[in-house]
Amino acid sequence: MFSQVPFTQPRWGWIFVRSLLPNPPGTLKPEEPKTAYELVENFTYYPLVQIEPPLILSAIQRHRELLVSFWDALIIEAALLSNCTIVLSEDMQDGQRIDNKLTIRNPFVSRHSSV
């Protein structure tokens, strides 16, 4: 799933990990928990951002400032905390710059100009 994305130093957050498994658990296909387990197991090789009160407070401020969803704000704050320079998201505004440090990129938007 992620093998095609070129990461040199990936930073994964529990927000992403948590999104792998929906509630209630009975809605999962039999292979999904195994796939999620393998993905999370692979994450143990990389630093994970823990969701703690200071991060939540920063996300609330960012949510108010940018008028984005709280969850998008939490992703932005976690990325900034990790010194990431790019966040891949199909939900946020492609090309948006945050604090002149972070750029939002939609991986599904073509970067080729049509001439």
What descriptors fit this protein?
alpha/beta, three-stranded mixed sheet, 4 helices, 115 residues, 5 strands, disordered N terminus
Report on the structure:
With 115 residues, the chain is α/β, with parallel strands linked by helices. The protein has a domain at 12-84. Helix content is 38%, strand content 11%. The protein is built from 4 helices and 5 strands, in the order E-H-H-E-H-H-E-E-E. It has helices at 14-19, 32-43, 53-66, 70-81; strands at 12-13, 48-49, 86-88, 97-98, 102-105. The strands form 2 sheets. The protein has a 3-stranded mixed sheet with strand order 3-5-4, covered by helices on one side. Strands 1-2 form a two-stranded parallel ribbon. Helix 3 (53-66) packs across helix 4. Residues 1-9 have low confidence and may be disordered.
**Succession of helices and strands:** EHHEHHEEE
Beta strand count: 5
- Note the overall shape: globular
Question: What is the rounded Rg?
Answer: 16 Å
Please identify the structural class as seen in this structure: alpha/beta
Q: What are the low-pLDDT stretches, counting only 5+ consecutive residues below 50?
A: 1-9
Largest sheet: 3 strands, mixed
Distance separating the two termini? 33 Å
Number of helices: 4
| Strand-residue proportion | 5-15%
Helix content: 25-40%
Kindly report the average pLDDT value: 79
Order of strands in the sheet with most strands: 3-5-4
